[in-house]
Amino acid sequence: MKNKLVVSVVLAAGLVALTAAAVSARPLSASRVSGLPNTCSKPFGKGQYVVASDLPLQGALRPLSVQIVQAIQLELKTMNFKIGSRTVQYVSCDDSTAAKGSWDPQTCTNNANSYKTVKNLLGVIGTFNSGCAEIEAPILNRAPGGGIPMVSPANTYVGLTKKTLVAGEPQKYFPTGKRNYARVAVPDNFQGAADALFLKNKGIKSVYILNDAEAYGLGIANNFQAAAKALGITVLGNDKWDAKQPNYQSLYQGIAAKNPQAIFLAGIVSNNGGQLIKDKVSVLGDNTKVLLMGPDGFNDSATATNAGSAAEGMYVTIGGSDPNQLSNPAGKAFVKAFKKAYHAKTLEAYTAYGAQAFLVLANAIQKSNGTRLSADAHLYNQSFPNGIIGAFKIDSSGDPSLGGVTVDQITNGAIVPVTTVTPPLSLAKAALG
Q: Which of 307, 327, 341, 424 has a CA-to-CA distance to 171 between 20 and 30 Å?
C-alpha cells in the first residue's frame, strides 16, 4: 500500500475526461464550510472531511493559481472524492487582495487562524508564496488536535525546512516541536546555484541583482549571489526594487554606470515586475545586449503579458521539469488529462506541482490513523517512484529529492524550454552562504 494510492490516481488521470470546473474570478462572500474564511470558494464535491488550498487568486499570479486549483480538482474527482475510506470535499481559498494584487500578510494570518477552527480539515495545499508560508506555518502547527498538514506546490525559500543564517530557522515555523510542513518545489539554494551556473556557461562575468525584499526574493537573491561568487562571477550589487514605484528609470541609470553583463531579478512578477522589465530594456538595452534572468517568480505567463515585448529573450527558471515537457508516464498522463479537462493549450509553471502536492498530502492521509499527528508523521520519508513530476522522495525535513532546474526563455511571448541544469551538490551548499 505504500504507493498504491498515488500510482492508481496518476494512471487513472490519463483516462478521465472532466468538464472544466469553474474557478471564480473572486472568492465567494461566504464559505459553505463552517469556520473557513470568507476568502474560500464553495466546496468542490461532498464529503465528511475537507482539504483546502491557499493561493493568490488575484493579481499577476492568478492564472498560475487557477491552474493549480484545477489540477487539485482533477485529482480529487479522479479519486471519486475519497482518500482511503474518508470522503473529502475541496475548497479553494484566496490569500491575496485586489488592492495589493498579490499575497497579503493580514489575509494569510486570517486564513490560517480560521483553518485552526475547522476540526474536519485534513490539510492545506499551499501556500504559493514563501512569505505567506512563514506566517501560516507556525499558526497551523499550533492547531488544536495536532498541526494541520501543509504541502506547498511552490514555496522555495530554504529556511522553511532547513537551517539558514537567519536565527531560529526552521524551528520557529514548528513551535510545537513537531513538523507538519512539506513541499514538492526544489529549494532555492539549488535554483540559485543552477541560475548562476547557467550564466557562467553563457560567458557572463558580471551581474547586478535586484530583489523585491520579500522572503522568497531576498532569499534567492542571496542564494544566487553566493553561488555566483563561488563561480567567479562578479556581483556588482544586490539592491531592492520598490514595487510601489511607478518606474525604475533612475534605478537602472545608476546600474548602467557599472556596465553589468546581466541583470538577475530575484522576486515575483506581481511586485510590478512588468514595469521593472520594461525599464531595464529602456535604459540598458534589450535582452541580447544585457542578459536578463529571473527565477520561478517570473516563470509565469503574466511576465510576458505585463512586460510585453520587453520580456522577449528573458530567461526564467523553475526547479524541476517544465510541466509541458514531462516525459515520464505519470507526467504525460497528467498533462494529457489536464489539457482535455480544461481545454488548456499549455500548463503554467506549477500546475503539475499542484497536483503532486495534493497527492503527497493524500498519501500521508491514506497511511495515517485518521489523526492530524499521524498524517503529519507520514508526510516525511515518502517515496514516489511514479510521481507526476518524476521519481522522487520527500526527505525527513519535508524537501523533495530533486535538484534539477529547467531554464526557459520567453520567445514570441511564450515560455519555451531551453535546457536543464543540475548543479553539483557542492555549489548548492555554497549557495547557502
A: 424
What is the Cα–Cα distance from 68 to 331, expressed in whole angstroms?
Answer: 15
- The whole-angstrom separation of Cα 20 and Cα 291 is 39
What length is written for the chain? 433
- What is 339-368 written as a DSSP string? HHHHT-SS--TTHHHHHHHHHHHHHHHHHS
| Residue 378 backbone phi and psi in degrees, to 5 | -85, 0
**Is 210 strand, coil or helix?**
strand
Q: Kindly report the number of other CB atoms within 10 A of residue 373's CB atom.
A: 16
Which of 110, 87, 80 is closest to 370 using CA atoms?
87
Residues 6+ positions from 257 with CB-CB distance below 8 Å: none
> Does residue 102 sit in helix, strand or coil?
strand
Calculate ∠ Cα 272-72-132, nearest 5°: 40
User: Do 224 and 264 form a contact (C-beta atoms < 8 A)?
Assistant: yes
Tens-place pLDDT, residues 142-161: 999 899 999 999 999 999 99
pLDDT tens by residue, 293-338: 999 999 999 999 999 999 999 999 999 888 888 989 999 999 999 9
Q: Strand 405-411 to strand 392-394: parallel, antiparallel, or no bridges (unpaired)? A: unpaired
Q: Other CB atoms closer than 10 Å to residue 325's CB: what's the count?
A: 14
Cα separation of 322 and 352, whole Å?
Answer: 9
Number of H helices, E strands in the chain: 13, 17
